[in-house]
Structures are given as C-alpha cells and as structure tokens.
Amino acid sequence: MIYLVAGARPNFMKIAPIVWEFRERAFEDFRVIHTGQHYDYEMSQAFFMDLDLAEPDYFLDAGSGTHAAQTARVMTAFEEICLDRRPDIVVVVGDVNSTLAASLTAVKLHIPVAHIEAGLRSFDKTMPEEVNRLLTDHISDILFVTEESGVTNLAREGIDTSRTHLIGNVMIDSLKRILDKTASLDAPEGGYLLATIHRPANVDDIDNLKTILDILTASAQHFPIVFPAHPRTLKKIQEFGLADLFSVRENPEEVLGKPLKPGVISLIPPLGYIQFITYLKNAAGVITDSGGIQSETTYLGVPCLTLRETTEIIVSVEMGTNTLAGTDKEKVLRAVEDISQGAYKQGKIPHLWDGEAGRRIVDTLLLLTTP
Ligand code: UD1
Q: pLDDT tens digit string along 323-336?
C-alpha cells in the first residue's frame, strides 16, 4: 500500500501525475491523503477537479494555525491512519508544513518515506519551507530530484547517493497535461503582467507589503496587472487598509476577454489551476514570490521577476526566464522595460522537464514495493 500525502495548493499538481500513472497501469494499491492545510474551495477542491483527481481517501482537517500547531495536528491525525493500515511507503511532495509533518510521522513508525522535489535549497533558514526541505530530505529513504543542483546539495549534505534519483520535474507533467485544456479559455486581452505575492515575509509586515505594492504600481505604468491574491494576502491588504490601491473584482470573470487599462492593478480572488495556467501562459511577464511559478514560467518561456533574494530553483535563473529581483524597484522596472521592448532574456527548458517525471517515479516506487 502506497500513501500519497498532499496538503496545500502547490502539492496537488505534484501528486496528480503519480495518480494518473497508477491509473494507467491499473495499480490500485494506493490512497490519497489530504491533510487539510488548505481548505478554501479555490485553494483545494478546485485543484482536485481541474486535475481530474477523485475525492481524497482521507481528509485530516488540520487547517490553519501556528507552525507548531498545524504540524502537530497533521502528525497526530496522520499517525492514526498509519497505525490503522500500515502503508509500505509514504510519498510526500514539496516543502510545506504537511510535507514535514507526514514524513516525520512515518519515519518514527519505521515506514519508508519517498520525497518528491528533494534536494532544493535556498540556503535561507528564515523561510519555513527551507527547514521543511532540509529535515524531510534527511529522514527520507528515497529522494526524487528535479534538477542537478538538488543532486549536488544532497551529496554535499552526506546523503547516500544511491537513494537519490534525478527524475525531472513532476509539476511540468501536470502543466503539460493542463495546457491542452487551456486552449479554449479566455485570458485578459493584450499585454498584462500577472502578480502573485503571499510569502509571510512579504505580506505580514505593512512596510514590506507597501514596498511591494509600490513596485507593482510603478510596473503597472508599463502593463496593466492582474493580481489573483492568496487568502493571506487578501486579509492583510484589508487589515492594513490598502484596498484603495486596487481595482477590486469579486469575480475573476470580470477581467476575462477584456483589454485592461494601463496603470490599473486588478485584484481578483485565487484562481483554479486551469484558469491560472491560462492567465500565466498568456502573460507578458510575471511578478511573484512563489516557488512553483518559477518552474512553470521557465517551462513556458514567460519572463518571471521573483521578489525574493534567494531561490531554491537555481535552474530557473541559470537556464530559465527567472530573475531574482528582491524588492529592488529599479531592477524590476528595468526588467519590465526589457519585457516591453522584447529585450528580456530567453530561456531553455531544463533536462528531464519533459512530462515524464511521474512515469519515472512510479517505475521506482513499484520496483521497491512490489514483492
Ligand atoms: C503554504 C506553504 C507555502 C506555499 C503556500 C501556497 C508552509 C509553511 N507554507 O503557505 O510554502 O507556498 O502554502 O499557498 O506550509 N488560508 C485560508 N484558506 C486556505 C488556506 C489558508 O484562508 O485554504 C489562510 C489562513 O488565514 C492561514 C493562512 O492563509 O492562516 C496561511 O495558510 P498556511 O497553510 O499556514 O500557509 P500559506 O501561507 O498558505
């Protein structure tokens, strides 16, 4: 029995290709566990529907809270189902609190753990995700890695190389499959920038959030901006009384198929996966602090300006279309000008980001779990 654990929005597109591959091989000895870290419709169910995933077999209902409280709730609930039906292997993905919670629970029960998206490092331990990545990798038995930098990091940290498998980026499997479904959908018309900001360091502090909004306001002079906001970001914008800076749209449909006005930042609710990818592939560029979007833009060749000082997805900067801009307004504006003049750097698609990562992972998992 294989348990696949997912808890937050960026996890769902990483387990889907594994489920699709199991289905294709008529392999049924697996269960999907949703920890409930994300629970809003747009953050969770919308993704299950868009990714053609059935209802999860278990929903742990962990919800929000402090890091300790959230991690502990996932651990307690997950332990119960591991004890109830002891799986042969637990598969975790990415770097969210649910990833660490599930892997820590499993390893204490002596259940082998496989980590998908292992080895990535930003070398910034103030990010909760970096702590989750480091700890999860060091207690995992099988490490599925997306890019060369991950292999190097794991070897440097003394992890036995026989456990490391460079198999490519499973997110790209989902992206490729979903691109077909975006073909007939509308996006906003004309050139626009897509913005997504949700890191606690960027939105929880009023001064940092104002700095970022100032960067967006200046960038909007070149291109109108569409900003689907994470629930955390929406809450903070309201709490800090900053909503006046936006054209707030309750319904994302309002910006579809319409030419947007320069200077305007349209704040819309979070989008489902298919709709988000439609907006992403048609954007002139992206301004973000997300991890996954740095991978997606690299695959799509869309310019990506990341408002962080570091990234764990090194290949997106070295080979792809990503630029680390921190909160340097001049740097962002220079890049936005380059985008408008067609002078922004061109990228290449990294090795093994080919839509076959799920197949490679399942080959290995089945080899290990089939008697
Ligand atoms: C989590 C991940 C982050 C990932 C992000 C994607 C960790 C440490 N962080 O951050 O790596 O990039 O997901 O979205 O695991 N909320 C809702 N509805 C929801 C979920 C959250 O309103 O469905 C609000 C709650 O107020 C909650 C806050 O968002 O307190 C933060 O949610 P949480 O899961 O703790 O972290 P994210 O910021 O979403």
A: 999 999 999 999 99
Question: CB of 238 closer than 6 A to ligand 1?
Answer: no
Distance of CA 275 to the CA centre of its chain: 15
Q: Which residues of 3-40 are buried (b: 16+ CB within 10 A; e: fewer)?
A: bbbbbbbbbbbbbbbbbbbbeeeeeeebbbbbbbbbbe
C-alpha span between 143 and 74 (Å, rounded)? 22
Cα 129 to averaged position of ligand 1 atoms, centre (Å): 12
Residue 114 tokens read as 């496989």
Residue that has been written with the tokens 């059935």 in this structure: 54
Alpha helices in 109-205 (DSSP H): 128-139, 148-156, 170-182, 200-203
* Residue 370 in this model has a pLDDT that exceeds 90: no
pTM beyond 0.90, yes or no? yes
Choose the residue to mutate in 11, 14, 34, 37 for probing ligand 1, maximizing ligand atoms within 8 Å of C-beta: 37
Residues of the chain by 3-state class (helix, strand, coil), percent to 5: 45, 15, 40
Question: Could you give all domains of the chain from N- to C-terminal order, each with its CATH number?
Answer: 2-168+353-369 (3.40.50.2000), 182-340 (3.40.50.2000)
